């Protein structure tokens, strides 16, 4: 794992850490104010700290965790994707998406992913390792700084939402993801002060972790990557379904909704001639009717060389119509970033395969 960082620590542990360095406890709040409140990630810019102590503070509490490899933008600057190299050369991605009323960060929780979903670029790459709490949080702090700089034209200058929908299965890195959520939602200067309701944690359906999340007393949105309403197909598209079937996964989702009062987001990638048949829309509608759920249909962003392709728009529209006819709230996700390898894992894969790999 990477070196210890301020964002790995809760406020009490930060005070203990600065005392270990021979500094007064108030320096912990000072560091937190810089990092979480002012979005300053480089100790060299914290000029109100003693110059003699900055090097030691940087090495012990604010090491550089993310080294930029590439940063691309599209959608007239409203979508920005960053590729990072970690201390062990692992690659991860994060995305900033600006809208007229909000700015959203999509962050990675693992380098790679072990869930092996065949239509996903990250799943094809396999799992390298879990990210630390600070590696997750530092992505958000960086992107919040980009938003604050005014670089996302036509959007507010404050990051307001975070979705754990980048590389990795968040609930497979459970303790660090939950710690990151608490850093992001703790009031400044202890954290970024985001609303729990503006945090979304996705999962392919790790049932024990979903049930554990329901016990955390958090009001984050749970997003379930379902992708098929029947076990035969979901066994292929989401291999973890071979362990926890559709009925059990949905039961855990409804338990989360009942415990938190939060509507579950059902993520469904529309894949041509695979999961987009009218009868599957009808089956999905029957499974979700009357439940505290919203379907988010995702036009597939195909990966290079993949046999999977996006559903045609008329097929997509008919799928939406049938779900809504069943009384299920349904929207189609806004497509962003296709010209910058916008789908999760694509930019990392292209970098590893191409001349910029090292």
TrEMBL record:
<feature type="binding site">
    <location>
        <position position="301"/>
    </location>
    <ligand>
        <name>S-adenosyl-L-methionine</name>
    </ligand>
</feature>
<comment type="function">
    <text>Specifically methylates position 2 of adenine 2503 in 23S rRNA and position 2 of adenine 37 in tRNAs.</text>
</comment>
<dbReference type="GO" id="GO:0005737">
    <property type="term" value="C:cytoplasm"/>
</dbReference>
<protein>
    <recommendedName>
        <fullName>Probable dual-specificity RNA methyltransferase RlmN</fullName>
        <ecNumber>2.1.1.192</ecNumber>
    </recommendedName>
</protein>
<feature type="binding site">
    <location>
        <position position="202"/>
    </location>
    <ligand>
        <name>S-adenosyl-L-methionine</name>
    </ligand>
</feature>
<dbReference type="InterPro" id="IPR048641">
    <property type="entry name" value="RlmN_N"/>
</dbReference>
<dbReference type="InterPro" id="IPR027492">
    <property type="entry name" value="RNA_MTrfase_RlmN"/>
</dbReference>
<dbReference type="InterPro" id="IPR006638">
    <property type="entry name" value="Elp3/MiaA/NifB-like_rSAM"/>
</dbReference>
<dbReference type="Pfam" id="PF21016">
    <property type="entry name" value="RlmN_N"/>
</dbReference>
<dbReference type="InterPro" id="IPR007197">
    <property type="entry name" value="rSAM"/>
</dbReference>
<dbReference type="GO" id="GO:0070475">
    <property type="term" value="P:rRNA base methylation"/>
</dbReference>
<feature type="binding site">
    <location>
        <begin position="225"/>
        <end position="227"/>
    </location>
    <ligand>
        <name>S-adenosyl-L-methionine</name>
    </ligand>
</feature>
<keyword id="KW-0479">Metal-binding</keyword>
<dbReference type="GO" id="GO:0000049">
    <property type="term" value="F:tRNA binding"/>
</dbReference>
<feature type="binding site">
    <location>
        <position position="113"/>
    </location>
    <ligand>
        <name>[4Fe-4S] cluster</name>
    </ligand>
</feature>
<keyword id="KW-0963">Cytoplasm</keyword>
<dbReference type="GO" id="GO:0046872">
    <property type="term" value="F:metal ion binding"/>
</dbReference>
<keyword id="KW-0949">S-adenosyl-L-methionine</keyword>
<feature type="active site" description="S-methylcysteine intermediate">
    <location>
        <position position="344"/>
    </location>
</feature>
<dbReference type="GO" id="GO:0002935">
    <property type="term" value="F:tRNA (adenine(37)-C2)-methyltransferase activity"/>
</dbReference>
<feature type="binding site">
    <location>
        <position position="117"/>
    </location>
    <ligand>
        <name>[4Fe-4S] cluster</name>
    </ligand>
</feature>
<dbReference type="GO" id="GO:0070040">
    <property type="term" value="F:rRNA (adenine(2503)-C2-)-methyltransferase activity"/>
</dbReference>
<dbReference type="GO" id="GO:0030488">
    <property type="term" value="P:tRNA methylation"/>
</dbReference>
<dbReference type="InterPro" id="IPR058240">
    <property type="entry name" value="rSAM_sf"/>
</dbReference>
<keyword id="KW-0489">Methyltransferase</keyword>
<feature type="binding site">
    <location>
        <position position="120"/>
    </location>
    <ligand>
        <name>[4Fe-4S] cluster</name>
    </ligand>
</feature>
<keyword id="KW-0004">4Fe-4S</keyword>
<feature type="domain" description="Radical SAM core">
    <location>
        <begin position="99"/>
        <end position="339"/>
    </location>
</feature>
<feature type="active site" description="Proton acceptor">
    <location>
        <position position="93"/>
    </location>
</feature>
<dbReference type="InterPro" id="IPR013785">
    <property type="entry name" value="Aldolase_TIM"/>
</dbReference>
<keyword id="KW-0411">Iron-sulfur</keyword>
<keyword id="KW-0408">Iron</keyword>
<dbReference type="InterPro" id="IPR040072">
    <property type="entry name" value="Methyltransferase_A"/>
</dbReference>
<dbReference type="Pfam" id="PF04055">
    <property type="entry name" value="Radical_SAM"/>
</dbReference>
<comment type="similarity">
    <text>Belongs to the radical SAM superfamily. RlmN family.</text>
</comment>
<keyword id="KW-0819">tRNA processing</keyword>
<dbReference type="InterPro" id="IPR004383">
    <property type="entry name" value="rRNA_lsu_MTrfase_RlmN/Cfr"/>
</dbReference>
<keyword id="KW-1015">Disulfide bond</keyword>
<keyword id="KW-0808">Transferase</keyword>
<dbReference type="GO" id="GO:0019843">
    <property type="term" value="F:rRNA binding"/>
</dbReference>
<keyword id="KW-0698">rRNA processing</keyword>
<feature type="binding site">
    <location>
        <begin position="168"/>
        <end position="169"/>
    </location>
    <ligand>
        <name>S-adenosyl-L-methionine</name>
    </ligand>
</feature>
